[in-house]
Prior knowledge:
The protein contains four helices and three strands; from the N terminus they run H-E-E-H-H-E-H. By secondary structure, it is α+β, with helices and mostly antiparallel strands. The chain has two domains: 2-86, GMP Synthetase, Chain A, domain 3 (2-Layer Sandwich); 88-120. Strands 1-2-3 form a three-stranded mixed sheet, with helices on one face. Helix 1 packs across helix 3. It is elongated.
Amino acid sequence: MAEQIRRDLAEIVRDELKDPRMGFVSFTAVKLSRDLGNAVIYCSVIEQDKQAETLETLNRATGFLRSKLAARMRSRTVPVLKFINDDSVTRGAAMEDLIRKAIGEDESKSAEDTSDGNND
């Protein structure tokens, strides 16, 4: 059900939520409570300068989004929605940069050791 909510929200936001304050948003995960009454939706906003405003807009539009979800879902209840930032994409990119930098430093040190003629 969480995956269905994620897909449906992506379509609704893309096609029906027309707000100029919205940045490009991707829904990365949905966590549902055991009773299916609450859903936390993790969002990744591409434009960092629009991140706070986009999350605020989504959280203000929860009534609209829930009504649109209700029309699509085959469930007696539609969970209460809460949108929060998912910075795992940003953190992953930062980690990738650090790894590339470390590999580059290792390769340059290895090349220096080889050119020095030090064959241990």
